[in-house]
């Protein structure tokens, strides 16, 4: 079986290799490759965007996998559509021109800043990547992502003397609210620290557009060995970078008509949206998708399931997901005019959860579970009270399971380990030590005091949840029952 290379690609798409570089991308992760680069590739093949991507690899390790495959890789889109039909498509993505290591070839990256065709910068450097670090941009390379970006922009400014038509559109895709504004703030601070001058700051302000954006696509990456081998057999070539993605995608970008013109790849999908306000898309994703995930993941995991798909094949867990979304989340969203569309979106979310090809691990969803429960669900619970004046049953069950999930059976080195049956799991949560202390000596009889203490902690919830009539009492009831009879039994009794 041949290895993926330019020679293996369909001759009809060979022309894409000759397109100019129009994008610089910080990050080689699967989300960028399975969403952003995938869409740019699709636009290139439709003669819309007509530009390739130079990728900056900032993390340790070589870029040899990309070089050995001429920058090519395959995205296998796998899932089930709303009609129940299987989707199983493979696309060889030709959008990446080359991958450059920041550690080994920083000057080569700065050289890209002199490219007259460059228009766009993308990034996904994880949530902690967009942070201000006081450092010189004249290192080779600077250490933080914002400093690398500032150095790149300053090189472009020096090359073209601050010309208006050599400004850039910057679209960070890190999963933090107002990612574009926060990245701009970091760059401006770094510019001041490095004394880059008023003219550079003026060019930065008027001709470099930082766009808030929101991305949504489950891209688990490389599948298990058996699936990987079967997919390679099907596509007919070896691909070390092959990645799997779900059919659904969303890329919402905050921008004006200038941004929309530059980001012409938005034409290839109705789910690529350039709008001056993307708060609607952010809120519906945060509350419906992320909120239901965080409410259900500890519940599903402690019920004995490992992935979301398994939950959706269980009558009780499936009903839990459906009911919490349709009855407790969607009605509370402050978008009455879009309520029909929100219900369709909710249906799409449930369909994504039922995708048999996506192995989305519940334990992974519980990473920093405490902060996620606060950010994603506390506002929804409070809205529910304002609207219905009672405790949301499904959220109280989820909250009880979350509290039980945070009970560490033992401490091992710096980790706190919870227990499910005979196995242990790591509680990856900044509040793990707090909960370890709070759970000491708690019995079913003393659960009410424990729940009162935790739910009234403003450091966790930025409010006192015990002031919501009946919330703490209902959480206490379900938590006590879970400790006495088991999580799955409690859920089934409550919901079936």
Number of domains: 2
Low-confidence stretches: none
User: Roughly how many Å apart are the termini?
Assistant: 51 Å
Rg, alpha carbons: 24 Å
CATH homologous superfamily heading of the largest domain: NAD(P)-binding Rossmann-like Domain
Q: What is the percent of helical residues?
A: 40-55%
The major β-sheet equals: 6 strands, parallel
Helix tally equals 20
Structural class: alpha/beta
Strand order of the largest sheet: 5-2-1-6-7-8
Question: What is the strand tally?
Answer: 15
Fill in the CATH topology of the largest domain: Rossmann fold
The level 1 CATH classification of the largest domain is Alpha Beta
Measured by DSSP, the beta-strand proportion falls in 5-15%
CATH architecture of the largest domain: 3-Layer(aba) Sandwich
| pLDDT averaged over residues | 96
Q: Name the overall outline.
A: globular
Descriptive overview:
Helix 9 (279-302) crosses helix 14 (369-388), helix 9 (279-302) packs across helix 15 and helix 11 crosses helix 20 (487-495). The protein has two domains: 11-275, NAD(P)-binding Rossmann-like Domain (Rossmann fold, 3-Layer(aba) Sandwich); 279-495, Orthogonal Bundle (N-(1-d-carboxylethyl)-l-norvaline Dehydrogenase, domain 2). The protein contains 20 helices and 15 strands. It is α/β, with parallel strands linked by helices. It is 46% helix and 15% strand. The relative contact order is 0.09. The N and C termini lie far apart (51 Å). A six-stranded parallel β-sheet has the order 5-2-1-6-7-8, with helices on both faces. The chain has a three-stranded mixed β-sheet with strand order 4-3-10. A three-stranded mixed β-sheet has the order 9-11-12, covered by helices on one side. The protein is globular and about 70 Å long. GO terms for molecular function: mannitol-1-phosphate 5-dehydrogenase activity; tagaturonate reductase activity.
């Amino acid at each position: 079986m041949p290895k993926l290379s330019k020679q293996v690609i369909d001759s009809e798409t060979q022309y894409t290799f000759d397109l100019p570089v129009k994008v610089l991308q910080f990050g080689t992760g699967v989300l960028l490759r399975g969403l952003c680069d995938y869409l740019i590739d699709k636009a290139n093949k439709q003669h819309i965007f007509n530009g390739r991507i130079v990728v900056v690899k900032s993390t340790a390790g070589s870029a040899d996998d990309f070089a050995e495959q001429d920058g090519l890789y395959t995205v296998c889109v796998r899932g089930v559509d709303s009609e129940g039909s299987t989707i199983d498509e493979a696309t060889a993505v030709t959008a990446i021109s080359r991958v450059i290591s920041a550690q080994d070839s920083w000057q080569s990256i700065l050289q890209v800043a002199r490219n007259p065709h460059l228009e766009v910068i993308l990034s996904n450097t994880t949530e902690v990547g967009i942070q201000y670090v006081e450092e010189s941009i004249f290192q080779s390379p600077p250490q933080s992502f914002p400093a690398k970006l500032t150095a790149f922009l300053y090189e472009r400014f020096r090359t073209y003397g601050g010309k208006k038509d050599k400004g850039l559109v910057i679209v960070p895709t890190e999963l933090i609210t107002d990612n574009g504004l926060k990245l701009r703030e970091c760059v401006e601070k770094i510019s001041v620290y490095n004394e880059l001058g008023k003219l550079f700051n003026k060019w930065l302000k008027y001709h470099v557009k930082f766009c808030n954006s929101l991305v949504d696509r489950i891209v688990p990456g490389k599948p298990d060995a058996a699936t990987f081998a079967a997919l390679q057999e099907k596509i007919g070539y070896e691909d070390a970078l092959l990645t799997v993605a779900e059919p659904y995608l969303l890329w919402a970008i905050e921008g004006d008509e200038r941004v929309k013109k530059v980001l012409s790849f938005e034409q290839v999908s109705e789910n690529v949206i350039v709008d001056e306000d993307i708060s609607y898309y952010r809120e519906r994703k945060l509350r419906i998708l992320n909120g239901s995930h965080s409410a259900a993941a500890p519940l599903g995991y402690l019920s004995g399931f490992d992935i979301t798909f398994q939950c959706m094949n269980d009558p009780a867990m499936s009903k839990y997901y459906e009911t919490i979304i349709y009855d407790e989340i969607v009605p509370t969203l402050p978008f009455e005019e879009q309520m029909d569309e929100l219900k369709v979106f909710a249906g799409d979310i449930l369909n994504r959860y039922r995708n048999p090809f996506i192995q989305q691990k519940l334990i992974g969803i519980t990473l920093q579970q405490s902060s996620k429960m606060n950010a994603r669900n506390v506002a929804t619970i409070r809205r529910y009270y304002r609207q219905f004046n009672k405790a949301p049953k499904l959220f109280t069950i989820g909250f009880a399971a979350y509290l039980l999930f945070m009970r560490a059976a033992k401490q091992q080195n710096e980790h706190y380990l919870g227990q499910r049956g005979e196995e242990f799991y790591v509680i990856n949560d900044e509040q793990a030590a707090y909960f370890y202390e709070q759970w000491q000596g708690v019995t079913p009889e003393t659960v009410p005091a424990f729940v009162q203490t935790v739910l009234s902690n403003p450091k966790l919830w930025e409010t006192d949840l015990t002031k919501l009539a009946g919330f703490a009492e209902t959480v206490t009831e379900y938590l006590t029952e879970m400790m006495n009879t088991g999580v799955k039994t409690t859920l089934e009794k409550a919901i079936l």
